[in-house]
Design goal:
The structure is a homodimer of 293-residue chains. Chain A is of the alpha/beta class and 293 residues long. In chain A, 39% of the residues lie in helices and 17% in strands. Chain A has 13 helices and 11 strands. The interface between A and B is large, with 47 and 47 residues.
């Protein structure tokens, strides 16, 4: 099975130490966080060898310090256990109770990796010539933040930046809802919103603020030129939207048009529409300008 | 304040009766459900006069049987209380405790309407010549279902259909996450998926199944003709996707392309991208074919 030593219980010191990572203060003190489940653990192990794909072609690879696995999960995911061992990562067998103690979910996955934090300075996340970057300003809901990170990854964004007083991206709910994407692209966390915007501009990005009352309609043909360039999409929080001064500082304020009677879209839906419309429009442009084969 | 009679407590018979609507069995028995908060209550009251905007221009208006309001909520939303009274709807003052007993949320809104169910038969939801309809097959998460209803409304869809063994759309979480949109467009609920698809075809809709491995790329220029017509988007559940036989029965299977390393998009994000790409593309087509003013 998974471990080589005795099976750890919830009182074994390494489990007790890992449990402290369930709280933000514990994560910040240790500079580590927990990734639970096969998808997150698999992505973390992949990232060890592949690195985080960024505009410069690879931010530093994350570190995985330890893997905990119950007997059942270790048997079910023997490939992951083998990959961890091959990478020199200690694998500890844990009881079901210890796995539950390391989990925030109702149905613990039985597989938890202790990872080193993976955020990089904003300038590093934006090196190279990023074409699509997602900036979340003061995101307050971890599930939303993770969902947007997953979306940014899916749309082929080069980096994600959490700006201002943001939710902890290493919160279990954020890690879970990112579905592994946290390990797929460079992420920066910076409390200074103005300096994040300045760094994006310095990297050659045109900043588009997504606001419900933006002067530009995302689907207006006149917006096509805006979307065709190198774009930094700037989104606010679900509850408070984008601060007025941040929206004002962007190069344009873009609205997803409401064709029906809904007052608005939720953050994740609006972000999905904005980011994919940008990525998809480029794809169309690329295909239609390609020489005929 | 809100009520004309004595303030109801959680033991007052009308409150006890309304509390039964927190459970699916209670809702089905009574044919009623609860709409909590100013947004939902406001949308329900608006729908009384406006009706549900559908392809035929107005499905039957919903009924609102009763409004419960705490003193604080009644004062805060005196416009809604007045609108309810003007419509002849009994308004009852309730204690904070009674409001909490009628709520599933951590922070009760103090304002709860008892509404009659508003779903209509599939054929009624699809009368007229619907141009954009959203079909959810076996949705299992109420929050997701509500989010997709909100999205369909925002994108100007003509109707929403919940097909197969579906979550109850009158579940509090679904009502909440629809943010009032449940009252904005006709909704049908039908356990027979095949007959829902047949009804959509009969209404002249081309059925596009959203699947991760669809043969059509949503952003492929060749897909433009598919999106330009009258479309019924068919989505599966978050956990189980779309049943293979349903995907096979659609006119085309369409994928949101993954440009990065994410395995997939979540249901709400994929639906947002599919539905808005359809609605937005039409808008662009409409603008570019309009005579120059």
């Amino acid at each position: 099975m998974a471990g080589t030593g005795p099976v750890c219980t919830e009182r074994t010191p390494r489990v007790v130490a890992a449990r402290k990572l369930l709280r933000r203060a514990g994560r910040e003190r240790a500079g580590r966080f927990l990734a639970e489940g096969a998808q997150a653990v698999g992505s973390a192990l992949d990232a060890l060898s592949l690195g985080l794909t960024g505009p410069a072609g690879g931010a530093p690879a994350p570190r995985v310090f330890e893997l905990f696995a119950t007997e059942a999960a270790g048997a079910r995911h023997s490939d992951l256990v083998a990959a961890a061992r091959a990478a020199g990562i200690p694998v500890s067998a844990v009881t079901e109770r210890a796995a539950a103690a390391l989990s925030e979910t109702v149905t613990p996955q039985g597989l938890v990796a202790v990872c080193g934090r993976i955020d990089v300075p904003v300038a590093d996340a934006l090196t190279g010539a990023p074409r699509l970057v997602v900036v979340l300003v003061r995101p307050s809901d971890p599930g939303n933040a993770g969902t947007v990170i997953r979306l940014a990854d899916a749309a082929g964004a080069d980096a994600v930046v959490l700006a201002g007083d943001a939710v902890d991206p290493y919160n279990g709910k954020c890690v879970r809802s990112s579905a592994g994407s946290l390990f797929h692209l460079p992420m920066a966390v910076d409390r200074d919103v103005a300096s994040v915007l300045a760094a994006c501009r310095h990297a050659g990005l045109r900043l588009l603020a997504a606001t419900a009352d933006g002067e530009r309609d995302l689907f207006d043909p006149d917006s096509a030129d805006l979307l065709a360039g190198r774009v930094g999409w700037v989104f606010g929080s679900e509850t408070h939207g984008l601060p007025a001064e941040v929206a004002a500082a962007a190069d344009a304020r873009v609205r997803v048009p409401i064709y029906g009677r809904a007052e608005s879209l939720n953050l994740a839906a609006a972000a999905a529409v904005c980011v994919y419309t940008t990525a998809g429009a480029r794809q169309v442009a690329r295909i239609s300008t390609e020489p005929v084969r």
